[in-house]
Structures are given as structure tokens and as C-alpha cells.
Amino acid sequence: MNSKMKGLVTLMLLFLGIQQGKAQTNHNAKITDFSVLKAQPLIAVIKDPSTLELEKLKSKLKKTKSKKKQAKLKESIAYEEKKIKKFNEAWTTAVKKYWELNNEILFKTYTEVAQLKEKGALEYTVLLIDDFSFTTSSSSGSGIQSYGNDVIFYTSIDNMTKRKKVDYFFVLQNIFSEYTSYKSEETYKLNFKLMQQHIVAVEKKDDTKYVFYDHAKESKQQNCVKLKGNKVLIYKETLYKMARKNPNKSFYNGAVRSSGKEAVANAILNDEDVIIGVPFLSHFRSSGAGFYYKILVNTKTYEIISCTNRANAINEFLRVDLKSVSSCK
């Protein structure tokens, strides 16, 4: 290989390394920043009761004379108002019960937080759930497609609107495929526990490049032995369809228990000494497809017991994932 070719290969490898690191990094803060973020009062952002969508609907209602259209608009307004109320209730309850990194917690709308920032009141940390979306060209040639997923941001008030400078973000794991603006209490609890555990691990490692997947792999090395003699509870909708009817037949030596939503939810909410399986969305690839890992978590200690290192873009436990679990690979 001549020197020109060697140089080209080196550049390609460097580019790939940068792209991989960029895709997986979910925090930009320096180590000292985390201590500041935790020491400051936390503002958990709730939705404003008067959104742009609501204002548009109310404006249309005022201009509409048709009784039939008025009735439909009133239904839409009621639906939007209920959606906002449900989100605020679920989010507020979860933050109060399960957020442990900050001692003082306040609840304000995005507009109120933006006003604080404008006034120069920067001594706050913000906890915000939002859609992290982008557009990309469709591989099928059908044009531009949008992709997005709920993401929890933990950042300084100064960086909350700077998506590329946000201090820390965590892709919200939608364990029950809840396609609503608000998630269940158990979903928020699981996410807060894993997210806070990772932040603490980053501080201990003193390494801002220590991404969640690195943390999960290291935890697996320490805890995989705890799988012995235990069954793994997996929500049946996240088992590959061929395994749902009889998951114990050939997977993980009969130690996978297919379950309904209630059993998994109770394990999380009641701190049961149970191991559950969760498809973990790490990040989006440039194609827009989700990049999933499969992790096993003890719902009493929130120790990560296992993490498959065979990633795929399917949010289901495949046969190969469960074989990896059984052998601690």
C-alpha cells in the first residue's frame, strides 16, 4: 500500500471514529459542570396551558359560523387541553417522586423559563422533555422524511435552547410504545433511574466520553452472574413475534417469561426484586433508523444485569439477543 493510499485509509478511519462517537455521545458537560447542575435549583419544564395549536383552534372557532364545524373545533380544543393537563400531571408526579440529583425543584412553563433567561437569571438547571427531531433523505427515493423521539434534557438554563450545546440528554425509553404526549409513571421512573445512574457513573469515571452503552457494558461484566437462577420478565410486545407464543421453548434455557404490561409496570412501581428486559434506544443513525441495544435491569436495585453487544434497528428481543443474554456475551 503506497503512502497516498495509507493516508486515505487513515482519514477514512478517523472520520468513521468521529461519526460513531458523535452518534453515541449524550452529554457535552465537563465533569465540573455536573456538580454545578446538581447544586442549582432544578426547573422541571411543564407545558404551557395556552399553546400555539390551541390558539389556532380558538381563533378558528371565533371565525366559524357553521354549527357542525364549531362542534368539531370544540372537541379538538377539549382534546388539546386534556392532553396538556395529562402531560403536566404525569411529568410533575414523576419528577417529584423519582428525581434525586437536585434538592430544590420548581415547575415552570417554557415561556416562564425563557423569561428568566432573558433577565439573566442563569443560576438554574433545567429538566425538559422534548422531541428531538431531524430530517433526512429517504433511502427509498420518496423524498425528505422526518424522524424524532422524546428526549430528556438535563442542562443549564443558558444552554437549554442550544441543541448542540445542551449539557446532557437521554433518549426516553418508551417501554410500552406509548404514543401519547405523556408517558406512564413506570416509564418515567425507569428512565429517571437509569439516567441519574449514568450521570453519577460519568462523574466517578471522570470521563465525559463515558456514554450510557459503555456504562451498561461495564455493569454487565460485574452483574451478569446474578442472572443465574432468575427469570427475565419481558413485555410480550417486545418479544419477536415468533417467540411470543412460547418464549420458553428455545430461548435462554427457558428463563424468559413473556408478560403483559401490568406485571412489568408493577415490578417497576413496587421495586420488586425482578429482572426485566428493555429494548434500549441509544441514538438515531444518519438514516433515521433507531439504534437499539437490549438491556436487563433489576427493578429493585436498578443494576444493569446484562446488555447485548449485538445492536440492531429492531425494538424487539430477537433469538440472537436472548442467546447472548444466556451466555453473558
Describe the structure.
By secondary structure, the chain is α/β, with parallel strands linked by helices. The N terminus is likely disordered. It contains ten helices and ten strands. Strand 8 and strand 9 form a beta hairpin. The chain has two domains: 178 residues, no CATH class; 115 residues, no CATH class. Helix 3 runs antiparallel to helix 4, helix 4 crosses helix 6 and helix 6 packs across helix 9. The radius of gyration is 22 Å and the shape is globular. The strands form two sheets. Strands 2-1-3-4-5 form a five-stranded mixed sheet. A five-stranded mixed sheet has the order 7-6-8-9-10. Helix content is 42%, strand content 21%.
Structural class: alpha/beta
Straight-line N-to-C gap? 36 Å
> Overall 3D geometry?
globular
> What is the total number of structural domains?
2
The number of helical runs is 10
Tell me about the biggest sheet?
5 strands, mixed
Helix content: 40-55%
Could you give the order of strands across the largest sheet? 2-1-3-4-5
Unreliable residue runs:
1-24, 133-147
What is the oligomeric state here?
A: single chain
The average pLDDT value, as a whole number, equals 76
Radius of gyration, whole Å: 22 Å
Number of strands: 10
Strand content is: 15-25%
- The SSE order reads HHEHHEHEEEHHEHEHEEEH
What is the structure about, briefly put?
The protein has 2 domains: 28-205, no CATH class; 212-326, no CATH class. Helix content is 42%, strand content 21%.
